[in-house]
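request received
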Amino acid sequence: MDIRTYLKNNLLYLDGGMGTLLQAKGLKAGELPERWNITHASVIKDIHKAYFESGSNVVSTNTFGANCLKFDESELREIIFSAVKNARQAVLEANTDSPKWVALDVGPTGRMLAPYGDLSFERAVEVFATTVRLGVQAGVDLIFIETMSDSYETKAALLAAKENSTLPIFVSNAYSASGKLLTGATPKAMVALLEGMGADAIGVNCSFGPKGLAPIVKEYLEYASVPVILKPNAGLPNAQNGETKYDISPIEFALECAELAKQGARVLGGCCGTTPSYIKELFESTKHVTPKGILTKEHTLVSSYSVGLEIGKTPLIIGERINPTGKPRFREALKNGDVNYILKEAVSEEENGAHILDVNVGIPDVDEVERLVQAVSSIQSVVPLPLQIDTSNPVAMEKALRIYNGKAMINSVSGKVESMESIFPLVKKYGGVVVALTLDENGIPNSAEGRVVIAQKIIAKAMEYGIAKKDVVVDPLALTISADKNAGLITLKALKMLSEMGINTVLGVSNVSFGLPCRDSVNSTFFTLALQKGLSLGIINPSSREMMKAYYAYKAIGGMDDNFSDYIAFAESTLNEVGKVQKVENVSGAQTKGLVSAIIKGLKEQSAKETELLLGKKSPLEIINDDVIPALDKVGVDYESGKAYLPNLLMSAECAKVAFELIKQRIPAGQAEKGVFVIATVKGDIHDIGKNIVKLLLENYGFRVVDLGKDVAPEKVVEAVKKHRAPLCGLSALMTTTVPSMEETIKQLRVGAPWCKICVGGAVMNGEYAKKIGADRYCKDAMETVRYSLSVVE
Amino acid sequence: MGIAKVKTYQTIAWRDDEIRRYAGIKQTSAEIDALIAECKQEGEKLLDYSLCYQEFPIAIVGDDVDLSFAKVTSRDLAKNLKGANRVIVFACTVGIAFDRLIAKYNSVAPAKGLVMHAVGVERVESLADRFNAELKERLKLKPRFSPGYGDLDISLQKDIIEVLSATKNIGVTLNENMMLSPSKSVTAIIGVTEERCEDKVSGCSSCNQRECQFRR
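response:
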């Protein structure tokens, strides 16, 4: 029988712990338990058999750590085939009538995924895929991904399972004492991610005892529309006379689990410290529990590595700033691959109160697929907000959805057949909440009713693909009122109709005011009206005070802001900002003289202000040569002589950068540019603080820095140096273990780009070492790199 | 043999002088102090102090040290553990959220990124020191020793992480080049003796990296 069918009307029992039982049978510290499938086959088989005879319907193979990072290919194959054989033998020998299945147990790789570790997402998918394929070949009945404590790794495993089998997939996560995964995801975020990707049962294991897991299980039960798994530890371990004991007895364990079974947990078992006697008690105390029906929940959820966000409860803000349309500086950053520029926008949108960030990086002449993947991975590594991936390129959309750490918003699909056929399969595969634009082959209907008809058509088609109705949000399109005075009214009417039908809506609000003066007032009024008609998501500029005023005031009036805490916090931050500007003015009047002093002291806001003042008096190049560079030189010399320290140098460099950004707007691109400097932390090394410092200083001194990031393959460095015909390349390595990859990079550069001067740095480097591996120069710090680079180009 | 115990801490006392040392600041200023205060305040919310440890019997013959779960050859470790008959092995971390914070400021405000990094180093070192001090209240200890100190191969970290199930217990992982992730994590070995021992070979003075910028 298909386990999914069985689950509809029955509680399903998993097995209990394996590790503690193996230790009792003589597994030594440091010995890999997976090898026992081969060397101690009958021990493993007997454990499986004991679980079946205690009431388990499913046993998991002894393959928790069976992956190609730990074992070579032939051994891995033997381990998995033996493991499945042991479990199958137990099925044959177990003396019970209940239905039995064998699950391929898939545990974490033990490695952290990039960017905080060195395992790339795609490599992780490959590692899991190898294990899954072997398990499928060996003949398992389902795949059980368990004890995952990172959302990203969980996604990689689930994706690998989906792409390499058609078997049912159960996914279970391990939570830390904070009630979140170790890498930050809440239960709600995990439900969004896993259900979105089509897991057949989801839940929790390990962590603590059943009581400790109760709040987490309840959160799963609230949001999940699939069966929920509960597989706790036997409480917490205690060492007694050198022996490990867990603090909950089988009967206590069973009673606590039974309580949660009554509330709806449908897949039950035990983890660390549990034995067949725990499973027996669990079975006995729940066998008369009537399984609670598994209901479809109507929560529209998106998620990030950290939060699960519900759409449709109170209106939310999607930040629109990560979009190059009409922004020359943004376009330049995209062309140069300047990710930090995009990150700054993202961080500022977050600080200004956005809940979701739209990410659009499409411009002509730039590879959108590469840029979108780069932007999404960079933003999701530092900003905890869910992202809305915004591209009309289906290839870019798929790549970005694949590497997204969560359940994304997908912008967008329209009523055109071609659009639906290319986007819906992606929504189905990767999960997501998709934005449906109310236009089709015939254009945009000029009536609310016409737009609603298209919305209904799109939703019906989505459902044919197996996408839940709740995962479609409709954009009834804000058109420019200056082109048609009724445009605003039509949109508002469509919003009202859609809301009344229980459909969530989204709107790019500021389109309404194109061509009009003082757009903020039109936009904010339109926003208020749209919210009043039930708008769920406004795509707006969160740094626009008018828009945020409208938003917070609407929530306060609409009874959606308990104790007015959001409104008051907003009001206070607005007041603070006004106060801050005044304070800076006072300081500047009283204490400092000009840009030079502001940069030396490291005062950012003041540097900006002084630069603006100077721009009225001097030419941009004069400011650079008379003020910015002398100030930097002064701090540089102080740093080298030990009078100033690295943080001082950096604070000044940041001020200089602020000044440059303002000056740049007045001079043609490329002028005053000293040359291109390609910089990277070498392959295998994930430290980048030093590299970022060097980059900042070089930029200050007029170099265009092409930053390839960290853990960069030698070929990539050569490719970039050749592409930009860079006269200079800087490599950083922080660990003795990564110096060989620095040496290899230099070797390849000498062949591929013989003109390029190479300087190296990092904690383990010195002059002698640098010479030995073939570098032109060792630079002990950022200032020395600047001086060396200037000597090369001048 | 048992399994590793897990411990968590709510707070650990701050040492601003250590933050300044790790940030390379010898003489502070109002601006720097303000930045440090800002980093501490912002970082505090994201710190998640956790630790796991286990005790093992050891045997030393010449430079060969049998730690029960791994055998290593290291003159410096053998010297460090002289007189000890068992060790307490531990791994500790302040968690991955702090790495995200460092990465964020590294990208958008490098001076703050640098100070945040220094705060992270101080935090995890203070966490390790706190655990060390707790042990010292009831045991006679040798100075703490970590893989990578002296001639002790850094690859011992792999065995430590595995035997403590540190990945499962506290989320500490190791990459191919033996770097720990979360980056603000520490693994170490502390020898336990029956006799009071002299503590003089500890810290910087026992290390042969004479050019190190953090040397005291």
